[in-house]
Write a structure and sequence with these properties.
The protein is an all-alpha fold. The protein has twelve helices and no strands. The mean pLDDT is 78.
């Protein structure tokens, strides 16, 4: 068993543990929160699964990028959101929308991601359409562990919070342990993408995603924050599989481009996260202040 395989296994295990923790902290009502609100569901899906892929296609046609990089950015735009939005850091009082949007994005991605991968494969003239692999990544890293977490929460509610905290720590620790060697191994490929427009395209894509999600969420400040981050942030594991499935060229370059775009998205989102944390903290302080 080589180092690359061990790293991939560690990343999968880390995401699975984090999603189980997400399920442990939620209830069935939380999981169906967005699915039971059609207007909110439509706005969320339009932001994440219609506008973002269209913007990604426009961007890659505006920048002079390598074909595998173009595929990677579009694949990242069509992937479901990562199951670890920073709810605690954001001082959010209600987590139902976070849990609900993760479930809605995962359920809808069962149909949307393979369909978009198929369209991409036609556009880039690829015969390798690994739809089953895409579905497997979504199921293994989101749907199944979320169901496990919900089941444990319902069966042993008294232990759910403690177990969720433990699994989150282990999962985030594995992410750090796995990403460091990935960055080392892929550094030459990542460095080849600096200066060719990839960084700029990824930054613009993330920035527009934050704006689109914030504007389409309605007037609720917490929903604005959640949908903005959900629109700008995507599941890198699904993006890698989808990108490699849609393009036969340079799979390592696709992987490096997805990783670089994901890191850029985190950096671009950081100022927004800090701003929204202050907004929610001020709102919470105002709500707790005694009336005179």
């Amino acid at each position: 068993m080589d180092a690359a395989l061990l790293i991939r296994i560690a990343l999968v295990i880390s995401v699975v543990l984090i999603v189980i923790a997400l399920g442990l902290r939620s209830t069935p009502a939380d999981a169906t929160y967005v699915l039971s609100r059609p207007r909110l569901l439509v706005r969320s899906l339009v932001a994440m699964n219609v506008i973002m892929p269209l913007i990604a296609v426009l961007l890659v046609n505006s920048f002079n990028l390598k074909t595998p990089v173009e595929v990677a950015l579009v694949a990242l735009a069509i992937s479901p959101l990562p199951p670890f939005l920073p709810a605690k850091r954001l001082n959010l009082t209600s987590h139902s929308y976070i849990y609900g949007i993760v479930v809605a994005a995962a359920v809808c991605s069962i149909a949307l991601v393979p369909f978009t991968v198929w369209l991409l494969s036609l556009y880039y003239h690829s015969q390798r359409i690994a739809i089953v692999k895409v579905l497997l990544v979504v199921a293994v890293t989101v749907l199944v562990p979320l169901a496990i977490g919900l089941f444990i929460h319902r069966t042993w509610p008294a232990r759910a919070d403690h177990l969720a905290a433990l699994l989150t720590k282990i999962g985030m620790g594995l992410v750090i342990l796995a990403l460091v060697p990935v960055l080392v191994m892929e550094w030459p490929t990542l460095r080849s993408l600096v200066g060719d427009g990839t960084l700029a395209a990824a930054a613009v894509l993330s920035g527009i995603g934050l704006f689109v999600g914030h504007m389409l969420a309605g007037n609720d400040p917490e929903k604005q924050t959640v949908l903005a981050l959900a629109t700008a942030s995507r599941h890198p594991g699904v993006a890698v599989v989808a990108g490699i499935s849609a393009s036969v060229q340079a799979p390592r370059l696709v992987t490096a481009a997805v990783l670089l775009a994901f890191l850029v998205s985190m950096l671009v989102s950081a100022p927004y996260v800090n701003w929204r944390r202050r907004v929610h903290a001020a709102a919470a302080s105002g709500a707790m202040a005694p009336s005179r």
